[in-house]
Amino acid sequence: MFRAGVRIDSAGFVGPGRPAPLNAVQVAARRGLDLAAHRSSLVGLGGRIGSDLVVVMEPTQARAVQGLFGRDGHDIVVLGDLDPEPIATRAIADPVEQPQAAFEASYTRIDRCVAELGRVLFPGVAGR
């Protein structure tokens, strides 16, 4: 799915070490992903983000990354902006403390947007 040399990390703005919510684990499992051992990480430990590209779920996160870590806005993408379907909001809803249907909706939108990100970053690469 990803090209050699591409490294993907996940981090957030809320405390590290938290397990994924049960609904997240269950919905991910139905999609073939195992989140049982996943634990959250804080973004920018050590005061910097070493990624070439930062992908966020909402515009406020993009502004926070710019302000806290001095990142140029040109290397930050709001993932929802890549949705190939009509959107009501740029933000991808955080389904925490919501029913499984909310996780399904968020994961479905993330899947669409990530597929589009792959097409943009790696045009002509089959098998995504």
Could you explain the architecture of this structure?
This protein is mainly α and about 130 residues long. The protein has a domain at about 50-120: Rossmann fold (3-Layer(aba) Sandwich). Helix content is about 35%, strand content about 5%. It has three helices and two strands. The chain has helices at about 20-30, 60-70, 100-120, and strands spanning about 55, 75-80. Strands 1-2 form a two-stranded parallel ribbon. The termini are close together. The model has no long low-confidence stretch (mean pLDDT about 90).
**CATH architecture group name of the domain at 48-121:** 3-Layer(aba) Sandwich
CATH topology of the domain at 48-121: Rossmann fold
Q: Residue-averaged pLDDT, rounded?
A: 90
The H-and-E topology, N to C, reads as HEHEH
Q: Sheet bearing the most strands, described?
A: 2 strands, parallel
Oligomeric status: single chain
What class, by secondary structure content? mainly alpha
Instruction: Give the CATH superfamily of the domain at 48-121.
Output: Response regulator
Which word captures the global form? globular
Approximate helicity band:
25-40%
Count of alpha/pi helices: 3
Q: In total, how many beta strands? A: 2
Uncertain segments? none
The Rg value, from CA coordinates, equals: 15 Å
